[in-house]
Specification:
Helices cover about 30% and strands about 25% of the residues. It is of the alpha+beta class. The protein is globular, with a radius of gyration of 21 Å. Glycine binds near residues 234, 292, 296 and 299.
């Protein structure tokens, strides 16, 4: 039996907590800080996922065997290296890459150079800093439109600008470089070609030598129906993705996943954990838009329920570098998740709204995101509040069930998109 500490507090972590707690190998199970949903599956610890000292103390006190960081921040900040450098912690399995490996997500410039070195298909690009501001502006002026600008570092999903004209592009470039709109993260800017296609998310779990591919998913990032309005953390997700057929996934495997894992190994970059490939399909060919060093949210809420394997067993195989012996068993059913959010999100919104109706939900899984418990009641505690995931023989059936149950949950300001999976 393994004692596990999962870091994070979103819908992704609730889905992971649901899955990990079902394992016959799961011993004592803790989530830091967790939410009202994760407390159903383990013990929430009130420690921030960025508080390495606090996490260390919890690992010692609770004799943790596996540390599983859900979000990218602690990985990019080097929690793997922090554990491996400490005699009291180094025996603990960390599900996630070293600080260097996490640069695949933590630095756009690092990931673009990595892809160039390993011939992994991605948009053509150049990088610029304060010292090359004028060259950057000249580059933008002769570049095709639209043009994509990306702050190099982590910017909570807000560091990407797609400009339709040169004036907007130069303005965005200046605000990143000169006015440091994204602080440190935007001191370097990647400028790249716009790829016109349809996006999907592919996930692999690697032990550094071998890897297994998890079910693919598609998320719906915009707040408004018909993919309009502001970007959000994700308003819903589906899995499988109908346009990701076998021939396409084979190209993804050969041209993207295998060269990425082999490239990390060839460069001696320690990487044991998830690789999230944000891909775009252009004329039937896959390109990498971005890498992440963790699972996606809300993709996890549809990917994890489709995996039939014992998840802790899979993580142990990873730690033993024996993923070549593992085989992922997927449910043949489709999964669809609808995200209920707070009114006003992704702008300003209220917290602390009483949530009711959970007892009326049937035939769906509810994965809490921004929720907490107050005086024994569940109240909202974030922008994305609750993911409702259902299975079906196809995506439409799955989502019909999620929508029925979405109507049963009540809280002031409730909003959700009515068109998740609409195109399939
Ligand atoms: P990223 O943070 O790199 O994933 O970018 C955020 C979003 O911007 C992506 O999910 C895409 O929708 C869009 N995007 C980023 N790069 C490109 C590109 N080169 N071409 C088209 N769309 C892009
Ligand atoms: N759903 C996109 C992400 O997790 O980054």
């Amino acid at each position: 039996m393994k004692n596990i500490l999962l870091l994070g507090s979103g819908g992704r972590e609730c889905a992971l907590a649901w899955k990990l707690s079902q394992s016959t190998l799961c011993g004592n199970f803790y989530i830091a800080p967790g939410n009202a949903g994760t407390s159903e599956y383990g013990t929430n610890l009130s420690i921030s996922y960025n508080d390495f000292e606090g996490i260390k103390q919890a690992c010692i006190q609770h004799k943790i065997d596996i540390l599983f960081p859900g979000p990218e921040d602690p990985l990019v900040a080097g929690i793997y290296d922090f554990f491996k450098a400490d005699p009291l912690l180094k025996h603990i399995i960390v599900v996630g890459p070293s600080k260097e490996g996490a640069q695949l997500e933590g630095s756009k410039a690092f990931s673009k150079k990595f892809m160039a070195r390993h011939n992994i298909p991605t948009a053509g690009y150049r990088e610029f800093t304060k010292d090359s501001l004028e060259q950057g502006i000249a580059y933008i002026k002769k570049h095709n439109l639209p043009i994509v600008l990306k702050a190099d570092g982590l910017a909570a999903g807000k560091g990407v600008v797609i400009a339709e004209n040169t004036i907007d592009a130069v303005k965005a470039f200046r605000s990143m470089i000169t006015f440091e709109q994204f602080g440190e993260a935007g001191k370097k800017v990647v400028i790249e070609e716009f790829l016109d296609g349809i996006e999907l998310s592919v996930f692999a779990l690697t032990d550094g030598d071998n890897y297994v591919v998890l079910p693919e998913a598609k998320d719906y990032k915009r707040i408004g129906e018909g993919d309009t309005g502001l970007n959000t953390g994700g308003m819903g997700a589906i899995s499988p993705v109908p346009f990701a057929d076998e021939a396409f996934m084979q190209k993804v495997n050969e041209r993207i996943i295998a060269p990425t894992v082999n490239g990390l190994k060839a460069e001696n970059i320690n990487y044991q954990g998830f690789i999230f490939f944000g891909l775009i399909k252009v004329n039937n060919e896959p390109y990498v838009i971005e890498y992440n060093c963790r699972m996606g949210d809300p993709e996890t809420e549809v990917v994890i329920p489709r995996i039939e394997n014992d998840f802790v067993a899979l993580l142990l195989k990873m730690s033993e570098k024996r993923l070549n012996e593992a085989k992922i068993h997927f449910s043949p059913k489709a999964a669809g998740a609808v995200m209920l959010v707070a009114g006003g999100y992704p702008g300003t919104y209220e917290k602390g709204q009483l949530m009711t109706g959970f007892e009326k939900v049937s035939g769906s899984l509810t994965f809490h995101a921004g929720t907490t418990k107050k005086d024994g009641h569940v109240v909202t505690n974030g922008g994305r509040v609750l993911a409702i995931t259902s299975f079906g023989d196809n995506i439409k059936f799955a989502l019909t069930r999620s929508y029925e149950n979405a109507n049963h949950i009540e809280y002031k300001g409730k909003y959700f998109r009515k068109d998740i999976g609409w195109e399939f």
